[in-house]
Amino acid sequence: MDDRSNNVVLTVRLSPALSGRLIALADTQKTTRSALVRHLIERALSGDPVTVQNLEKSLRFIHIAIDALLRHHPQVGIRDEVLRIQKAVATHIESTPILEGRP
Fold first, then answer.
1. How many CB atoms lie within 10 A of CB 36?
2. Are 37 and 47 in contact (CB under 8 A)?
3. Same-domain check for residues 21 and 60
4. Quick one: 41 and 70 in the same domain?
5. Which domain of life is it from (predicted)?
6. Model confidence over 63-88: pLDDT tens digits?
């Protein structure tokens, strides 16, 4: 059971744009902004911060692993087909505007 009477309240000032992005992320993950911020703080304090460098390293590993699996897949041409689809999806994503906050 969560004993909220012992919790410390932390206030953070955010720009309207950053606040909108936080609200949108919390909505997407079906969680509260408080829970999301707690999770980010816990990760940072445990030595596993969410950084661009960490995300890039993870994505690079995934990219290499999937490419190797596709290169050695018994279905000939599957790698080329996946690359074609990935390029089409990337083009669609790049042409889609990103919302800064709630409508």
1. 16
2. no
3. no
4. no
5. Bacteria
6. 999 999 999 999 999 999 999 999 98
Based on DSSP, count helices (H) and strands (E) in the chain, helices before strands: 4, 0
In tens, the pLDDT along 7-54 reads 888 888 999 999 999 999 999 999 999 999 998 888 888 877 677 787
Distance in angstroms (rounded) separating the CA atoms of residues 100 and 23: 10
**Domain housing 28:** 1-48
pLDDT reported for residue 7? 85
Do 58 and 40 lie in one domain? The reply is no
Looking at the structure, do residues 63 and 37 belong to the same domain, yes or no? no
d(CA 42, CA 11) in angstroms, rounded, equals: 16
For residues 13 and 8, give the distance between their C-alpha atoms in angstroms, rounded to a whole number: 17
Structure tokens at 49: 């911060």
Please tell me the distance from the alpha carbon of residue 64 to that of residue 54, in angstroms, as a whole number. Answer: 16
- Tokens representing residue 74 in the block: 């018994």
Tell whether 5 and 36 lie within a shared domain.
yes
DSSP annotation of 4 reads G
